Amino acid sequence: MKYTTKLSDNKRLTLGLISDAGWIAYFTGFGLYLTNGADGLGTVALSVTFLLNCLAVLAVFVGIIEILSQRIRRLNRTVQKGDLIFGFGFVVYGALGGLLVSGASAVIDILLRYETGMCFASQIIMAAGALVCFAFGLPIMRSFKPDEI
């Protein structure tokens, strides 16, 4: 089944660029966590949230690759259901997962008093970036409606 969007180019571009800024911030926070804050892996709870964050980052990355693939194939306004799920679905719901896990990691850091400055800051950057990516990517994904047969 094909899905088509009626979203104007200007609105889609604006939402897309803001969502892109969100996943870039999310990846940046994850990179900071890997390089400077990985001492937070000392507790089992933070190790589990780290692994869940890895899955969320992977989902967003796969979605981005799929959206770029769609652009290369010139599928801008009409996509197949699978393309929509693997593209915007992975980005949006991966970002939602990243928001929940990063936020939970920050709360666990505070509750266990295990935080280091960089570890906590990177989790906040990840949560904020994931929130922006989710909030501005969801309207684009929801704008795709099934074509009438």
Describe the protein's architecture and organization.
With 149 residues, the chain is mainly alpha-helical. The protein has one domain. The chain is 77% helix and 7% strand. It has 4 helices and 3 strands. A 3-stranded antiparallel beta sheet has the order 2-1-3. α1 packs antiparallel against α4, α2 packs antiparallel against α3 and α3 packs antiparallel against α4. The mean pLDDT is 86.
List keywords for this structure.
149 residues, mainly alpha, three-stranded antiparallel sheet, 4 helices, 7% strand, elongated
Summarize the topology.
Layout: E1 2-5, H1 9-36, H2 44-72, E2 78-80, H3 81-112, H4 117-142, E3 144-146
Antiparallel strand pairs: 1-2, 1-3
The number of distinct β-strands equals 3
Give a short account of the largest sheet.
3 strands, antiparallel
Give, in spatial order, the strands making up the sheet with the most strands: 2-1-3
Which sequence of SSEs, written as H and E, runs from N to C? EHHEHHE
Helix share of residues?
A: over 70%
Overall 3D shape: elongated
Count of alpha and pi helical runs: 4
Rg estimate, integer Å: 17 Å
Query: What structural class should be given to the helix and strand makeup?
Result: mainly alpha
Strand content: 5-15%
Q: Provide the domain count.
A: 1
| Average pLDDT figure | 86
N/C terminus separation: 9 Å
Low-confidence regions: none
